[in-house]
Amino acid sequence: MTHDTSTTFTRLVGCRLAIQLAPIGAAGQGPQLSLAVAGAGGHAVYPAVFLSAAELSDDIDRLRAATGAFGVNFVVPLLDRECLEIAAHRAPMVDFFYGDPAAELVEIVHRGGALASWQVGSLEEALAAVDCGCDVIVAQGTEAGGRVRGRLELLRLLEQVVPAVDVPVLAAGGIASADDVAAAFAAGADGVRVGTRFVAAEEADAHPDWQRALIDADSSESVITRAFSAGVPDFPHRVLQRSLDGVKRIHSQTVGSVLTRDGQRRTLPRYCSDVVSRDFEGHVEAMPFYAGLSVGRVRAVMPAAQIVAELAAGVPATQPAR
Ligand SMILES: Cc1cc2nc3c(=O)[nH]c(=O)nc-3n(C[C@H](O)[C@H](O)[C@H](O)COP(=O)(O)O)c2cc1C
């Protein structure tokens, strides 16, 4: 018998399961991973970072042809206005991270007809995002892989944010198992956002050495640093310690290269923040292997649909009304 797993979040965005694929940079681009998560009943947030307007447009076309359960993510200091307008008009949701909530950006999203979501690291930021008109809040704890915004562990942050806002709250940071999902729901979350675990999905465009490192590592190897910030603002981020060791061992100014969509090779500087995709050539051990504290529970590369199903076992059958 299937039980009702709907929440205020799933009803708002129109998906079956309150399991959201986090934007995970290039590892989530080319929409196969998003399509797999949405196809399995979850919600996918597609990373717009470093895409041209034409590339983002194509990707949104492919997503729209298959699902309505997706959003497009922008890292605010790297935001491209043309891409934002495209997403606001053509995606069902636009999600922001790493900038103070801005009513002007939320208005652009709503004018285009999309829902607005903001990933926050503190109660103050959550309240500001709601004041700006956001429809969904993602509360990110310090356990999170990739860029880390706040200073509080997830459950402490949820304790503050959940009772203070009247929009759905997703929990992000360190979630990789059904038990983690259950703990987030018990703390009042309406759903979860998961990044690191999906880097080890078969459909992710993640370098196999990075995926293998995630499987091998335990949580104590995930560390916060500002080191991988060449050419971008130096936000704190969580990577495996072995990446910091690896980058110190190389002495060239460049670390390697990746393929662009038009078939050129783009050279990457040492300490670059780029997510390491399958087509990377060079010193892979010196690239940032982003990993949240959830990394200890990443045990195998598996199809995204299987990951969604495993996580969904932690979603309680009925939600208390909020
Ligand atoms: C490889 C990687 C890249 C990420 N890139 C982004 C990004 O471009 N935009 C964003 O809002 N969040 C980004 N994040 C953070 C996620 O939104 C989310 O907070 C995080 O993955 C949750 O923690 P977890 O990795 O332990 O599941 C990234 C996370 C990872 C692991």
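The first strand starts at residue 19 and ends at 21.
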